[in-house]
Amino acid sequence: MFAVLKTGGKQYKVASGDVLRVEKLAAEAGDTVQFNDILMIGDAIGAPFVAGAGVQAEVIDQIKGEKVIHFVRRRRKHSSKRTKGHRQQLTLIRVTDLLAEGADKSGVKAAIGAGSAPRSAEAAPAAKAPKAAASGDDLKKLSGVGPALEKKLNAAGITSFAQIAGWSDADIARYDEELGLKGKIEKEGWVAQSQDLKA
Fold this sequence. Notes:
Blueprint: E1 2-7, E2 10-15, E3 19-23, E4 32-35, E5 38-41, E6 44-45, E7 54-64, E8 68-73, E9 81-86, E10 89-99, H1 147-155, H2 161-165, H3 169-179, H4 184-188, H5 190-198
Antiparallel strand pairs: 1-2, 1-5, 3-10, 4-7, 5-6, 7-10, 8-9
């Protein structure tokens, strides 16, 4: 029986006992990892992946690929040339087991690329919040406040017109100094504008 797995943007046809070089994985030599992106195993063909299937492998070593020379030369009288070398970081693995089902319950850690995060519900990126946050006011209604300055104000904990309307002279001086506004609060009359806007 053989399987086709996907890792590091490439597909590999593997059978039990095969040794192959894949893009670097976040694992040490001797670790057992499991590939869950299985495109085909035995007679089962995924759409795009076969549910519950997995390929387990033992990490033999972290290695480097052959040196690749990148040479650039521009043909002109006062031309330039540049030579760069590169050795791709790889992981040498030995396939130990092909699982047609039950891979999600095996307890073996998933094979993850060295620079990636795990693909799971808790690691999924949170949906972006809408522009106007439910907890605060649109501070761009104040004169002289754009998107960048609104972010600065929000980072400083200022999110509503009610906060700005209640500022004393000491608060104005403090925020002017902290945020580097150069007298913009008094010049634009943010306190008076906030009192009108909060009502």
